[in-house]
C-alpha cells in the first residue's frame, strides 16, 4: 500500500482565508500588520526563505519589508536596526534570518527581538511559556513546530497518547516540538546524534519526526513494515542529483508507512504559513 502524502497546500488553502479576514479586520481598525525581515548578506537559502515569507505575508494583506544588510555589517549597526524596529509601534513582527555571516556570528540573537514582536518564538519569555504549557491563541510558538501541529490537525492526526519519536534536538525544531507535543499529551522521545539503536527506537513509534539535515538517511530499516506509522519529514537537503530532498528516503519507504510529508511541499510551506499566523497574533496584541 502506498503512503498517503501530507501536502501543505490544502491545509494552507483552507486556513489562509481566516488570516486574510483577520488582517482585513485589523486594517479596518487602522492597524496594518507589519513584518520586518532582517537579512544580512545573501546566503542563497536565506534569500529564498525570506522572499517566501514576504510573499505569503503580502498575500494575506500584511506589509513586509526585507532589510538586506551588507555582509560586512558590524555589530553596532546590526543592533541599531533591530532596536529601531523594537521601538517602532508601527512594526508588529521582526525576524532575524539565520545564519548570520561570520562577522556577526558571535551575537546571540535569541532575545534581541522583544517578546511580543518575536514571530520566531525564540525569546526566553516565549520559550518559557512553551515550557510551562501556558499557551493561548496568540502565543508566539516557533514556526516549524507550530506548522506541524496545524498540519496534523487538518489531516485528523491526533497526538494525544501517541508514541512520538522526534529525531533532532535543535532549538528551532526538535526541542520546541518536543515541548509542544508533550503539552498535547503525546509521549515524546527526543533522539539525536548520540542516540543508540535509533532504528529500534523509530520502529516503536506511532509518529516519527525527522529533523536532522541528512539527505535520505531514513530508509526502510528505520520503520515497521505494516503501513501504520506517520512521518513528518522536516529536513530540507540537496541530494546528489541536485534536487531537494528530505531526511527520509521517500522512494524507499513510501510503500511501508501510512503517511508522510513530501519534500518539498510538506513541512516547509507550513513554516512560512506559521510566520504569518504569528504576525497576525502579534498585531492583534
Ligand atoms: P540542526 O542542524 O541545528 O541540528 C541537527 C540535529 O540533528 C542535532 O540535534 C543532531 O543531534 C541531530 N542529528 C544529526 N545527525 C544525526 C543522526 N545521524 N542521527 C540522529 N540525530 C542526528 O537542525 P535544524 O536546524 O533543526 O535543521 C534540520 C533540518 O531541517 C535541516 O535539513 C534544515 O534545513 C531543515 N529545516 C527545515 C525547516 C522546514 O520548514 N521544513 C525548518 C527548519 C529546518
What does this structure look like?
This protein has 285 residues and is α/β, with parallel strands linked by helices. The chain folds into two domains: 30-114, Leucine Dehydrogenase, chain A, domain 1 (Rossmann fold), CATH 3.40.50.10860; 142-268, Rossmann fold (3-Layer(aba) Sandwich). Helix content is 38%, strand content 15%. It contains nine helices and eleven strands. It has a six-stranded parallel beta sheet with strand order 1-11-8-7-5-6, sandwiched between helices. The mean pLDDT is 97.
Q: What percent of the residues sit in helical stretches (DSSP H or I)?
A: 25-40%
Number of strands: 11
CATH class of the largest domain: Alpha Beta
Shape: globular
Give me the CATH fold name of the largest domain.
Rossmann fold
- Order of strands in the sheet with most strands: 1-11-8-7-5-6
Outline the fold blueprint:
Layout: E1 4-5, H1 9-28, E2 34-40, H2 44-59, E3 63-69, H3 75-87, E4 93-96, H4 124-132, H5 143-154, E5 163-167, H6 174-183, E6 187-191, H7 198-204, E7 207-210, E8 230-233, E9 237-238, E10 244-245, H8 250-253, E11 259-260, H9 267-284
Parallel strand pairs: 1-11, 2-3, 2-4, 5-6, 5-7, 7-8, 8-11
Antiparallel strand pairs: 9-10
Helix pairs in contact: 1-9, 2-9, 5-6, 5-9
The structure holds nicotinamide-adenine-dinucleotide.
Nicotinamide-adenine-dinucleotide binds at residues 144, 167-170, 172-174, 191-193, 195, 198, 211-214, 217, 234-237, 267-268, 271.
Amino acid at each position: 500500500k502506498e503512503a498517503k502524502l501530507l501536502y501543505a497546500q490544502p491545509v494552507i488553502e483552507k486556513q489562509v482565508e481566516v488570516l486574510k479576514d483577520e488582517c482585513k479586520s485589523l486594517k479596518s481598525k487602522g492597524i496594518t500588520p507589519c513584518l520586518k525581515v532582517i537579512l544580512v548578506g545573501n546566503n542563497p537559502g536565506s534569500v529564498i526563505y525570506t522572499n517566501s515569507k514576504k510573499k505569503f505575508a503580502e498575500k494575506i494583506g500584511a506589509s513586509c519589508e526585507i532589510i538586506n544588510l551588507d555582509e560586512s555589517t558590524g555589530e553596532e549597526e546590526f543592533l541599531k536596526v533591530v532596536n529601531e524596529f523594537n521601538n517602532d509601534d508601527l512594526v508588529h513582527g521582526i525576524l532575524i534570518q539565520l545564519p548570520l555571516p561570520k562577522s556577526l556570528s558571535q551575537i546571540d540573537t535569541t532575545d534581541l527581538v522583544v517578546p511580543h514582536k518575536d514571530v520566531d518564538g525564540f525569546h526566553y519569555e516565549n520559550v518559557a511559556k512553551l515550557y510551562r504549557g501556558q499557551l493561548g491563541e496568540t502565543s508566539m510558538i516557533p514556526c516549524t513546530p507550530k506548522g506541524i501541529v496545524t498540519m496534523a490537525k487538518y489531516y485528523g492526526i491526533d497526538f494525544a497518547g501517541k508514541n512520538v519519536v522526534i529525531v533532532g534536538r535543535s532549538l528551532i525544531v526538535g526541542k520546541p516540538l518536543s515541548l509542544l507535543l508533550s503539552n498535547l499529551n503525546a509521549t515524546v522521545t527526543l533522539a539525536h546524534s548520540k542516540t543508540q539503536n535509533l532504528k529500534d527506537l523509530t520502529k516503536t513509534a506511532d509518529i516519527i519526526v525527522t529533523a536532522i539535515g541528512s539527505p535520505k538517511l531514513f530508509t526502510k530499516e528505520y520503520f515497521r513494515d505494516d503501513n501504520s506509522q506517520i512521518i513528518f519529514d522536516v529536513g530540507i537537503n540537496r541530494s546528489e542529483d541536485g534536487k531537494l530532498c528530505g531526511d527520509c528516503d521517500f522512494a524507499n519507504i513510501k510503500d511501508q508507512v501510512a503517511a508522510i510529508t513530501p519534500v518539498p511541499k510538506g513541512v516547509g510551506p507550513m513554516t512560512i504559513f506559521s510566520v504569518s499566523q504569528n504576525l497576525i497574533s502579534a498585531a492583534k496584541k
